Amino acid sequence: MASTHSSDLAIELITTGEKAGLWGTITNTNLQILELSSSGNIEVAMGGGTDVTLTLADGSAAGTTTATGKNLYFKLTGTLTRNQTLIMPASVPSGGTALRVFVIEDATTRSSTNYTLSVKTTGSSSPVIIPAKSTGIFYSNGTDTSRGLMTKGYYEVVAGTNAPYTAVAGDQILVNTFSAAVTINLPATPSLGDEVTIIDANTSPQGFASNNCVVGRNGNKILSGAADLTLTTNTQAITLVYTNVALGWTYKTNSV
Asked: 235: which DSSP letter?
């Protein structure tokens, strides 16, 4: 029986009696693949205008373009020119479901149009949006991708530059209203426990009292009301958490 390959990392599994004289080479390649999955890191350019699909080719290891998806850590770079998605393969060429745990760091630059960055599994219609400037653990079960632990980053929204801005779950937004009011729209389809943090990033005495920050409800309630929330206090910082349809978004923290 010929050698086969494992489903998730496509490690070559040598059948007894096969590959005479090649065991050393194949074993070294397999060890390189295991290194990739435990400590390998790669920068992935996301500014090319097309989604990027990673690779899990059979037997491929470090230094090859066909093993990009076998790394543990992915640093996403470039200036986004559209909504971009990083895609993890659902299987390997020899067959079988690819199960992958991996880490993504968002080091991309968002233009004034605030394009989104997502990750998904091949064939999935449910991409996971990555909060701006965050680093998180993700899991692909061969059908969909889910997000685990995450270190949140900070994203600056400046009046006249990249405002208004529509937040995604997990965003921590530094709002600069020095020249004009700014609107931050909450996610349109939130899930239980989703959080968004909004912080007055103006230099005193300028701030939300001079030019307000409007938190757009985007179709969901805020504090059980069907109205946007206006922040009017300098140096204010709030975290909103989504609870349910009746209450909608409510304060988790409020500095005033």
From this structure: T
**Both tokens assigned to 252:** 């988790």
Residues near 68 by Cβ (< 8 Å), separated by ≥ 6? 42, 44, 54, 55
pTM: 0.87
Specify the CATH superfamily of domain 154-256: gp9 (2.60.120.640)
Cβ atoms of 200 and 209 within 8 Å: the answer is no
Mind listing the pLDDT tens digit for each residue in 198-235?
A: 999 998 778 999 999 999 999 999 999 999 999 999 99
DSSP annotation of 78 = S
Residue 60 scores a pLDDT above 60: yes
Half-sphere CA count of 196, side-chain side, radius 13 A: 24
pLDDT at residue 146, as a whole number: 97
Which secondary structure element, helix H or strand E, spans residue 101, and what is its range? strand 100-106
Nearest to 71 by CA among 101, 49, 110: 101
Give the domain ranges of the chain.
1-152, 154-256
Report the C-alpha gap between 182 and 164 in whole angstroms: 6
- The pLDDT value recorded for residue 38 is 82
